[in-house]
Design brief:
This protein has 326 residues and is mostly helical. The chain has one domain. The longest helix is centred in the C-terminal third of the chain and has 36 residues.
Amino acid sequence: MRGYAALSVVAFHACAMSWETIATGMAPVVVFFVLSGFLLARSLDRDPDTFTFVRHRLFRLLPAAIATVLLLTLAHQSFGFYMGLGPPSFDPLNVILNALLIKSDINGVMWSLTVECVAVPVILMSHALLRRHGPMPVWILVAVLVGLSFWGPYVHLLDGATNLAPLYAFVVGLLMQSGGTMLSDASQSNLQPSRATFVASAAFAVMFIVAIRKQTAVTIAFETLCASVLICLAAFGPRTLAVLRPFDLDVIRFYGRISYSFYLLHMIGLAIAARLLPFDQQPVARAAILFLAGVLITTPAAWLMWRFVEVPFIEVGRRPMVTKPA
């Protein structure tokens, strides 16, 4: 699912660079958020230690983000390269704030990583509530966050393009994982493959319809619902659903592995592709060529960052802080 989400982000942005569109690529980001909540809940179930969880998140998010910001800073200083309508500030303080995911004006798509950082204490609190008091208080928290997603001052509480409206998607993902046993039992006993196929197809259809519309609190809620349904069916549903088999394609699993670096770098790939293409193409043709060129340019760079930045630092983050004597 991460692989498809990463590729669809490129498609959305390729369209936005080719014609005026109200679609912004929020839907794939919401999928990422629900998936993160789902997987982080499993991590906390294995080891609920707060310090370990935070350390893992820091080593997971920051190294590749820092590398991306430094790459863009170097490209700007060496070649005058920048993305967007005008060059952002590359003053040392602003570079540091972007690298630490406090700001995202150097690489605009990194606003979602700022939300991921905000989600860390929310996930920890939700998991603690779930263990001590069950799912009801966590669902109440979801309801509160959904209500706040309609309130502009909350949505734009942080500077720049950072949007807090989908923050609750992390908590919904956590709840989906926590109810895994119940969902698995229910799906095996009541949800036949034909019904599961219908539900999955409906989720895909609704996701597509809301994804190409102007993003509001309502569309984000539908995207969260659809992502949750698909994740639950993939994780706990019948194992023979033809509609979900595309998730198992090797090429999509590859993009799933490198999806974080791919997401960080894809606007650089699209910007390079846009500079190489003529401007007199038909919008649809231009978007298709931009998408293909952006993927081709971004993929090797994303693999290199995944292999030589993400993986080594994830391994460092997983090392025990204190070595026990033999």
